[in-house]
Structures are given as C-alpha cells and as structure tokens.
Amino acid sequence: MTILKNSIKLCSLFALGALTFTSCSNDDDNTGSTGNPSPTTSTRLYTSNNADGNITFYDITDMSNITTTSLITASVAADGIYYDGSTDTAIQASRSGLALEGFANATTQATQSNVNIDVLGTADMVSPREVAVNGNFYVVADNSDVDGDTTTPDGRLFIYERSGDAFTLRNTITTDFKLWGIVFNGADLYAVVDATSELAVFNGFLSNSTDVTVLPSKRVVVEGIVRTHGITYDANTNTAVLTDIADATVSTDGGFHVIADFTTKLDATPNGGTIALSDQVRVAGSNTVLGNPIDVAYDGNTETVFIAEAANGRILAFNNIGIGGDLTPAVNNSLVSASAVYLSKD
Ligand SMILES: [Ca+2]
Ligand SMILES: [Ca+2]
Ligand SMILES: [Ca+2]
What's the CA-to-centroid distance between 249 and ligand 2, angstroms? Predict the structure, then answer.
C-alpha cells in the first residue's frame, strides 16, 4: 500500500495546480510502507462546471509532472462529465446547449484553450445531469418534470449512440422517480432516487430500446443517507460510493457512504429492503467540508474518494477512509460550481 505517498501526491497536485489548497491530512499510519508503483497509466480527474461550462482536469499520474488543464467551452453551464481515452475526447452534458458535446485532443490542449465541439448530439434535453457510458451508448439523466405535475416524481434517461462526430438519440426511458446520479455496472444501470435515500437498479438497462416508462428491477434503501445524489461504482474492487446532500439548503450536513463488496450486499437485499448502515462506511462531519456533495468518483487502487462539492465550491479527495467519520479531506481545492467528477485511467 502507498497511502502516504498517494496523500503527498494529491497534496502536491493541488499545490502545483496553483489553486487554493487549504488542508492536507498528515495523520497517516502507513509510514512504513514502501514501493511506489511506477505509473503505467495516466490518471486524471475530469470536472464539469455549472457556472462557466468549462472542463477542468487534473493529471494525477506523476508527482514530478502534475498539471491542471482548463478547456474553455462555448457552453455556460454543464453537468455530467466523461473521458474516452481511446479517442482522447472529453464529453459533457451541456446545460446551456441541452446536448452532449465532445472535445477531441482533450489532453494535448494548452490550458485555457478555447475548444470547439468535435462530437455533438441533438438538443433534446431539458435539464441534463449525470452521464453514464457503456460502449458507444451514452446515457444522460434529465431531472426535469416529465408529466407537467411537479408534485409527482419522474425523470427521463436519454440514450444516445455515439458514431463518428455525432451522438444520435436512440430512445428515452421515463422513470417513476426523480433522477440525478447514474452509473453502469456492466449491463445494469444504477440510479439514485433523488430526494430519497434509495437506489434503483435497472437490470439489462440498454435492452429497453423504445420510448417507454420502465420500472426499476428493484429499489433499496441505503440506510443512513438523508438525500442521495451522486453515485459511482468501481468494478475492480466491487465498491460503490453514494453521496448524501441531506438538506440542500444546508452547507454543513453532507456526507458519503462507501460500500465494499457491493454486489454481494445489493444482491442480498430484496426489492424494498435496506442495505444496513453497519454494512457501509459513512464519512460526514464538520471537518469534511461536505455540504452538498453532488457527484463522486473512486480510485480503487488508492482507495481515494473524489467529491464535487456544490454547496462549498470544492473538489475534495479523501483517503485513509478506514472506519469513516469526521475525516479531514486530503485535498480541499476551490472550484466554484463544480458539478461532476469522472476519474480516468488509461
Ligand atoms: Ca411529475
Ligand atoms: Ca446539504
Ligand atoms: Ca460522475
């Protein structure tokens, strides 16, 4: 394990990034660890922004060559973010253009470059949020009201197929709950049930190829969460992380839950059942800076959780999570209106 070195790495990253860095955890009990695996991959954290529509990414591969890059887009607000290493393209859901937009040569642009859209979707959406990707299929969660009655919960999942320089709308799935965070685990799609503590599971999600309402295969309560929002899943370590924004008007009551051995626990929980808090690790409290953590990414190799913290305008990273609690973030970086995070290793 190289927890300490990873901690230093992250601290240095954000210091070298010339960005506000206000906290760096030094408490670490792994000082005896040795060996820093040579970087055989590029690891980057991509972020979108709801105030300027720009993409910022942090290259966290190599301590001696850390960079922060911002790509200036024509959008003025954006949410879900994804990076496709095979074509070096960063993709986001534009909340001003109401479409998916992809930017090629993402990692070879100079920071602050104005970038043009290289892959564009049709402007079908109303309030796009998180993006989840499976092969050439890009799914966007839209949290606008569907049926003209804002008192009834609903939402839509727009399924696009990417080909060449276009995202083509294949079909739209309506849900009977409010949407926000989504993530694939193989063929299954996990979706948070916004405004609740629940998680919805759609088995074989992409097999729904027409415009229909689809009920989730099951819904489970994630005990201890007040209002969930962000979700990520790491297949290599079978770990899920869900965020808790609690009261959206309160900037001190957020948290996140790490669930190890996730599919075992999910499979053991029937529809309408509860994943017990004792099967999770909760991080929350005054030291965490968590108020409205709206999106999350997870590095299973370093056991690091990355958070887009909307209420306090932060990108946060937590490691040495252990049994959780009121942890101080290893990284506490100012990014006003951070709206989504995506971790890429390629
Ligand atoms: Ca409704
Ligand atoms: Ca809150
Ligand atoms: Ca995300």
Answer: 6
Residue 154, Ramachandran bin (φ over 0: left; ψ between -120 and 50: alpha; else beta):
beta
Compute the distance from residue 282 Cα to the ligand 2 centre, in Å: 15
Which ligand is the nearest neighbour of the Cα of 213? 1
Class of domain 3-345: mainly beta
Contacts made by residues 33-40, CB under 8 angstroms, sequence distance 24+? 33/1, 33/2, 33/3, 33/4, 33/5, 35/2, 36/2, 36/5, 37/2
- 35 Cα to the center of ligand 3, angstroms: 30
Helix residue ranges per DSSP H, 68-141: none
Establish how many alpha carbons lie within 13 A of residue 185's alpha carbon, considering only the half-sphere containing its beta carbon. 20
Question: DSSP class of residue 337?
Answer: T
Looking at this protein, which amino acid is placed at residue 339? S
Domain locations in the chain?
A: 3-345
Q: Where are the alpha helices (DSSP H) in the chain?
A: 3-16, 262-267
Cα of 34 from ligand 3 centre, angstroms: 32
Would you write out the chain's pLDDT as a tens digit for each of its 346 residues?
A: 333 334 333 444 444 333 333 333 333 333 334 445 544 588 899 999 999 999 999 887 763 565 789 999 999 999 999 999 999 999 999 999 999 999 999 999 999 999 999 999 999 999 999 999 999 999 999 999 999 999 999 999 999 999 999 999 999 999 999 999 999 999 999 999 999 999 999 999 999 999 999 999 999 999 999 999 999 999 999 999 999 999 999 999 999 999 999 999 999 999 999 999 999 999 999 999 999 999 999 999 989 999 999 999 999 999 999 999 999 998 888 888 999 999 999 8
CA of 156 to the centre of ligand 1 (A): 11
The Å distance, Cα 176 to ligand 1 centre, comes to 8
